[in-house]
Design goal:
The protein is an all-alpha fold. The protein has a single domain, classed as MFS general substrate transporter like domains (Growth Hormone, Chain: A, Up-down Bundle). A two-stranded antiparallel ribbon has the order 1-2. A hairpin with a 5-residue loop joins β1 and β2. The protein is globular.
């Protein structure tokens, strides 16, 4: 695929050569990796500090109320993911990316100055919209650039950058908060990330929609006949139905993505409170809050590429089951060392799942409607934040935090079973008959 090319006019009339392939687009791909790391940093600024801020500064005692910031984040991000795909096809990828960064600018300022929990809620609505626009668009742009042969690697690099930044920022804000307090210093990082992300996206990132159009002109049906009925243009409604319910691989990926982020919402909102109740310091909580996304981020450098070689299905199913085991260990453990082991296992399981799900969507969805399919998948996946916050809060208020962790562990195990039973292997190698 790497030798296929076309010419796209630049502003001013000079044609830019459009080619598919990681090597051919190395500069823009690397730039998008950096941009997505900044996107992850915007999310990471909240992972350690915000649950503690709700309990200590705003007096939030009920778990359901304390998780409200994750609930609104999940709803706004999920909805925005859907529109991000549609808008990327209609207006281009770059305008959507820049718009996402513009929405992000006030978020750290609102977190710093918030006089009430309502301000925190509104800031997280904006953060969800921003994450939906920016993260979705960087995913689509990388898929556009690399073509079909290195899709798993591309998603591994994208998600690794984002979640490594989540981890690094969660760790840094934990130490800053321990040294200087919960506000304002931990959120200074978010101000810097927003400024850099907006500047790079507006001034240096280039449009990639023509790469998708180039791939579509040479798109070849699979020799095994899988998903031939999905070739060509589909309406928005058809894309939603196929990705959500009808097409076995797409819908299996959507439910697995939802459950994956359901347990991430639990980890984000309740783990710091669970660890604090056990007597851990803010610094130790920061280490645990960072360890899980750090392993998740770094692991994707391996798992994304492995899915190109080994296939998608069993990495996804196995990753969901490993997450379930890790959550069970967190519910049982009572010490920093055991929680650290569980965080590593949870990160490893998520690394197996996260880029592989995105790659499977790219495998099945036709280039003509792939951005919309990614948007629908991410609608379901990030809706898991909202479902997780609501479910975990209700169960924790009724039965305690360990019961909430056990509930999510069981749902995660069942999700892996759905993938094992319903999903077919989407990674088709033409050399394998």
């Amino acid at each position: 695929m790497g030798d296929r090319s076309n010419a796209e006019p630049r502003p001013g009339g000079t044609p830019r050569r459009v080619e598919l392939g990681l090597r051919q687009n190395a500069a823009q791909f690397t730039l998008l990796v950096v941009v997505n790391a900044l996107v992850g940093g915007m999310l990471g600024q909240e992972r350690t500090v915000l649950p503690l801020l709700g309990a200590e500064e705003f007096g939030i005692t009920a778990y359901t109320a304390g998780l409200s910031f994750i609930l609104v984040f999940g709803i706004s991000k999920a909805a925005t993911n859907y529109f991000a795909g549609t808008w990327s096809d209609r207006f281009g990828r770059k305008p959507v990316l820049v718009a996402g960064w513009l929405v992000a600018v006030p978020v750290p300022l609102m977190l710093i100055w918030a006089p009430s929990w309502t301000w925190i809620i509104v800031a997280n609505v904006l953060l969800g919209v921003s994450q939906g626009l920016t993260w979705s668009t960087t995913v689509v742009m990388k898929i556009d650039l690399v073509g079909p042969d290195r899709r798993g690697l591309a998603m591994g690099l994208n998600e690794a950058a984002g979640y490594a930044a989540v981890a690094a920022t969660a760790l840094a804000t934990g130490y800053v908060a321990e040294a200087y307090g919960l506000r304002p210093e931990p959120f200074f990082l978010g101000i810097a990330f927003a400024a850099l992300g907006l500047g790079l996206s507006a001034l240096v990132v280039e449009e990639t929609r023509e790469h998708a159009r180039l791939e579509a002109t040479g798109h070849v049906a699979r020799a095994d006949g899988k998903h031939d009925h999905l070739h060509g243009e589909l309406t928005n409604g058809q894309v939603f139905v196929q990705t959500s319910f009808k097409e076995p691989a797409l819908s299996s990926a959507s439910q697995a993505g939802l459950v994956n982020n359901l347990n991430d919402g639990l980890a984000w909102g309740l783990f710091p409170i669970l660890f604090a109740a056990a007597g851990l310091s803010i610094g130790e909580i920061g280490v645990l809050a960072a360890l899980y996304p750090a392993v998740w981020g770094a692991g994707q450098l391996v798992t994304g590429a492995l899915s190109d070689r080994w296939g998608r299905k069993w990495l996804i199913a196995g990753g969901m089951w490993l997450q379930a085991v890790a959550l069970a260990l967190i519910a049982l453990a009572e010490s920093f060392s055991l929680w650290a082991v569980a965080a590593v296992l949870l990160g490893a399981g998520t690394a197996m799942v996260y880029p592989t799900l995105l790659a499977s969507i790219g495998d099945v969805a036709h280039p003509a409607w792939r951005a919309r399919a990614v948007g629908v998948y991410r609608l379901w996946r990030d809706g898991g934040f909202a479902v997780g916050a609501l479910l975990a809060g209700i169960v924790a208020d009724a039965l305690g935090v360990p019961a909430a962790v056990w509930t999510v562990a069981a749902l995660t195990a069942v999700s892996g079973l759905v993938v094992a039973v319903r999903m077919y292997e989407t990674r088709h190698r033409p050399d394998v008959v």
